[in-house]
Amino acid sequence: VEERIDAVIMPVLGAGHGRMDPATAFVSLLLALAEAARYAPGGRPLKSVTVVVFKRDEESKPEVDPIVVCRALALAGSPPHRAS
Predict the structure, then answer these.
(1) Is residue 21 helix, strand or coil?
(2) Residues 42, 1: Cα–Cα separation, whole Å
(3) Number of Cα atoms under 13 Å in the Cβ half of residue 26
(4) 19-49 pLDDT tens trace
C-alpha cells in the first residue's frame, strides 16, 4: 500500500520447476488472487492483474486451454459461498 502498487504481472507459478499441471497452477493462482483481493483488510485494491501463460514454441497450443481460463475467471469472479 505504501508503494502504491496497483498492478501486477506474473507468470503461472508452479507449472515449471514445480511440475504442477499448468491448468491446475493457473486456477490455483487465480483463486488465490481473488481471495486476496476479496479479503485484504484496508489495502488498496489492484486495478489490474496480468497472468502470463507461456507456450512451449510457436507451433504449440498455450499450456492452459482457453476454456479452462474462461471457467476459472467465472469461478474467481463469483460471490463467495457461505456455509450454513
Answers:
(1) coil
(2) 9
(3) 21
(4) 888 899 999 988 888 887 777 666 667 788 8
